Amino acid sequence: MIFIDGDQSCVTIEDASHLPSETELIVDALSDKYADGNPRGFSAVSSGPGAEHTLFGCLNFSWYDPARRIHRFKQAGRGGIGSVLRKKRVKAIAVKHSAPITAESNGPADLQLLKEVGIAYNKEIRALDPKQNEMAVVGTTHLVPIMNQFDLLPVNNFKFGSHPDAEKLSSDIYRKKFHEGFDGCWLGCTIACSHGIKDFEPKTGPCKGQKVFVNGPEYETIAGLGSNCGIFDADYVTEANYYCDLYGLDTISVGTAIAFAMECFEMGLITNEATAGLDLRFGNAEAAMTLIHQMAKGEGFGVVVGQGIHKMKRHFNQQYGANLSVMEDIGMEAKGLEFSEYMTKESLAQQGGYGLALKGPQHDEAWLIFLDMVHNLMPSFEQKAEYLHWFPMFRTWFSLNGLCKLPWNDVVPENNKETKEPAKIIAHVSNYAKFFTAVTGEATTEKDIIRASERVYNFQRIFNLRMGFGKREHDTVPYRAAGPVTEEEYESRQERYDTQLRDLGFKPEGLSTETRIQTLRKHRETQYDRLKDAVYERRGWSKTGVPTLQKMKELGLDFGEVVDLIREAS
Ligand code: SF4
To answer: Cα–Cα–Cα angle for 130, 133, 135, nearest 5°?
Structure first.
């Protein structure tokens, strides 16, 4: 473990073999050892046993909740960063900093400006959050009924976008379960969306019958572990959330991977032999929970599922002769990462938001589904390309600055709709530019923000290229992300799809469902290909998806090795 003593300005690497394996228990133990009776001045990042046996290892970031007198946790899950840390033999990174955090802690260049922007922003959040998403009360669970209403909530491995039982997982259910109190995952946050459930009693696993505090669930966890696995039981989701956190497992990858295994089981692509006896039908909460415990222990079928969909497809094909092309269509992964929990079939921009994301299909880079599908803010390819350029850049900027992006777009100014580009919420972007100016003393505009990110983003793309993942073919999504794969899916939304075929000049009457599926597929795949062209052009990349030499020169990134890589790829 790495200990950063902010009081003594000293960093040490210490033996961690005596520490427990579970992420939350690690933090309790480290706090006892290092916090010196001031847990508010202590925080740790830890990985868990899930990281040792799966590729889904997440990191838990702790903060102390003085009202409840416990350490609370927020997870960074996508991409298996917990697994990376454990593979490097690091269990935790702990920080002690006893002095209270204030607006002056970072020595801002312009304290007055910082305070002005901060006060105005907080005032707006306090006034508008109760009228908009109620993040301070229900957090991201507010998305469940909305997604269900617009056919965007993944159900049964992304086959469908809504379900009559979705209300059993809705914000109204969790509103009653969440423990009341301030839930900012850091002191300065007014949105305070990090809710949790107090005194929850798990029915399984090592904490069975104990009273525990569950950090969450949030929307992605509910949709991934719940509806996408056909499980509409709020207590199951809460327990699965608790154990994923304790074990250090990314709830999104776990949910999407289990859903894939369930569909393979239901389709007969794998049988009891592969699952070691687990009856993996959609809706079987007991089997899903068993898998989660197995992933943490490195036992049974959990070991296979924990390797992710990309590897599962090959394993099922090689071991059991399962049809690979069917699994390529229904296996919801790209670049080896499982999809996060939004249905993209009717949103070309969101297909791009997932498929063209550098890390793989995660919602953090470009969450465009609502803006595209519901508000129709980007009807042309050029507009989609503009947003698929701008959103990843702005979100990269948040990461570069260690900021949460929710205050940018989960509360919006009342007049936002009347602005030129409402999707960008420019008034808030301008606030961030002012924050940056106030802290660093460097006059910064909205354009500078995007420019700073562009340099990083393009360099990341080159890094992907170097690792064998940065080309056009890697930006592809499984067909289920773009349209119906099975007859059951097509027929469940037949009116919609038939209308679309008619709009394209076909007469669906008289065509078999299979022919309708294939006709629609040809069209949707062509559209996605055109989207790639438009986005590459906007980003300054070649048709093969590689940043051009001219672009890298313009960004000041035309280093020798970069130039060689680009030339090799051309
Ligand atoms: S809005 Fe962001 S910083 Fe605030 S509590 Fe939620 S996740 Fe944490």
So the answer is: 80
Distance 466 CA to ligand 1 centre (A): 34
pLDDT at 46: 95
Question: Where does CATH 1.10.569.10 sit in the chain?
Answer: 134-338
What letter does residue 374 receive in the DSSP assignment? I
**CATH 1.10.599.10 placement within the chain:** 348-569
CATH tag, 134-338:
1.10.569.10
Tell me what the mean pLDDT of segment 132-153 comes to: 95
Long-range contact pairs involving 125-128 (C-beta distance under 8 Å, separation at least 24): 125/190, 125/191, 125/407, 125/411, 126/190, 128/411, 128/412, 128/413, 128/414
**What's the first-to-final CA gap in the chain, in angstroms?**
43
Measuring CA to CA, which residue among 318, 312, 314, 356 is closest to residue 334?
356
Among 293-307, 388-402, 524-538, where is mean pLDDT lowest? 388-402
Q: What's the predicted TM-score (pTM) here?
A: 0.96
- Identify the CATH number of the domain defined by range 348-569: 1.10.599.10
Atom of ligand 1 at shortest distance to CA of 407?
Answer: 1
- 61, 133, 137, 189: residue to mutate for ligand 1 pocket, most atoms within 8 A of CB: 189
Q: Does domain 2-96 have CATH number 3.60.9.10?
A: yes
**Residue ranges, CATH 3.60.9.10, the chain:** 2-96
pLDDT tens string 449-483: 999 999 999 999 999 999 998 999 999 999 999 99
Mean pLDDT score, 140-167: 97
| Average pLDDT, integer, range 91-95 | 96
User: Which residue blocks in 403-507 are alpha helix, DSSP H?
Assistant: 406-409, 426-440, 446-466, 487-492, 494-503
The DSSP output letter for 100 is: P
Q: Per this entry, what is the length of the chain?
A: 570
- pLDDT tens track for 234-268: 999 999 999 999 999 999 999 999 999 999 999 99
Residues within a 6 A CB radius of ligand 1? 184-186, 189, 191-194, 404, 406-407
Residue 371 binned pLDDT confidence (cut-offs 50, 70, 90): confident
In eight-state DSSP terms, residue 403 is: -
